[in-house]
Amino acid sequence: MRALLTSKWTKIVVFLVCLIPLGMLVWRGLNNGLGANPVEFIQLTTGRWTLRFLVFTLCVTPFRKLLKLPDLIRFRRMLGLFAFSYLCIHFLTYLVLDQSLDLSAIWKDVAKRPFITVGFLGFLLLLPLAITSTAGWIRRLGGKRWQALHRAIYFAAVCGVIHYYWKVKSDVRMPLFYGALVGILLLWRLGDWFFKRRSAAGARLSPQHAPANPAQ
Ligand code: HEM
Description:
With about 220 residues, the protein is mainly alpha-helical. It has one domain (about 1-200). Helix content is about 80%, strand content about 0%. α6 runs antiparallel to α9, α7 (about 135-140) crosses α8 and α9 packs antiparallel against α10 (about 175-205). It starts with a helix and ends in an 11-residue tail after the last helix. The structure holds protoporphyrin IX containing FE. Protoporphyrin IX containing FE (HEM) binds near residues 44, 47, 87 and 168.
């Protein structure tokens, strides 16, 4: 399994698989397959894939730990960047095809429609994460600060779920499904953090770490 996860070919295959939704969208576009409202079709498809890739990215750490497969980490950055890339297409479709780059209309829409406001917030949260995803930025920020910043992905995923929930209005089953997934992943992370803190506190109090002379 380790050889498979560390092979450069696996990374290439995963990269190509992540491109399939985009490829299908382009294929449909070239073959008149985007339905009666192509702009809506592109927005819905890219919105759903953004959320899916956010969930895939959030799954990497729990899967690494629960399945004892540390090498899964090699795919996290790629999955996160795919989430951001699908979001950029989603956002650009809105800006260019839906709003014709009319900045005052866009601003009014962001301010007036709560589902757009919260989607926009999700974009703003993910932007610094995409920018600082390189090894150079990890070095510049230092591991701890970089990790703290990248926890914003949870808030972005929550924004994505609320955005989806407010958008669909009637049939809320899919937004609730994604909400449950993000909730479970968030709870797992909180549990992991709590467990680590308790183990660290326990290790500090254990006899090996106690001062040789208790009066000291
Ligand atoms: C984390 C960020 C975001 C995520 C995860 C996301 C995801 C989604 C999802 C899942 C849908 C609904 C798909 C469906 O009904 O099946 C959607 C719809 C939509 N999103 Fe986003 N979105 C995000 C950010 C944005 C931003 C920044 C904008 C624009 C400012 C935006 C504009 C829209 C619009 C206009 C629709 C409705 C499309 C239509 O009904 O024609 N989204 N988005």
